[in-house]
């Protein structure tokens, strides 16, 4: 790879948390779902917004709740006005903490990626 090609490199990475048995609990994808639920006030609307299936998302969220040991959603059944889903206080705390963690890691990763590119581009 020529040095000029190193300048074109871009960084992409994923972050996720697992339980002690390495079962996935929360990563970028599930975080986006929880964030969309918080923004739209509805699991169905969040699924539509993200282009994902309701049933699988519902099952994924139930699995996360089981592994964490607390509910993420407060749900009200539909009626003439439709149902709603809001994050529990613990659910909001989780997405806030994940968001802060991700922002901090983004800064660190970008810094070290610049160091890597500098090393690749240097004449050493």
From TrEMBL:
GO terms for molecular function: DNA binding; DNA-binding transcription factor activity. Residues 32-92 form the HTH lysR-type domain. InterPro entries: LysR_HTH_N, Molybdate_resp_trans_reg, WH-like_DNA-bd_sf, WH_DNA-bd_sf. It holds the Pfam family HTH_1. Keywords: DNA-binding. It comes from the Bacteria. PANTHER family: DNA-BINDING TRANSCRIPTIONAL DUAL REGULATOR MODE, TRANSCRIPTIONAL REGULATOR MODE. This is DNA-binding transcriptional regulator ModE.
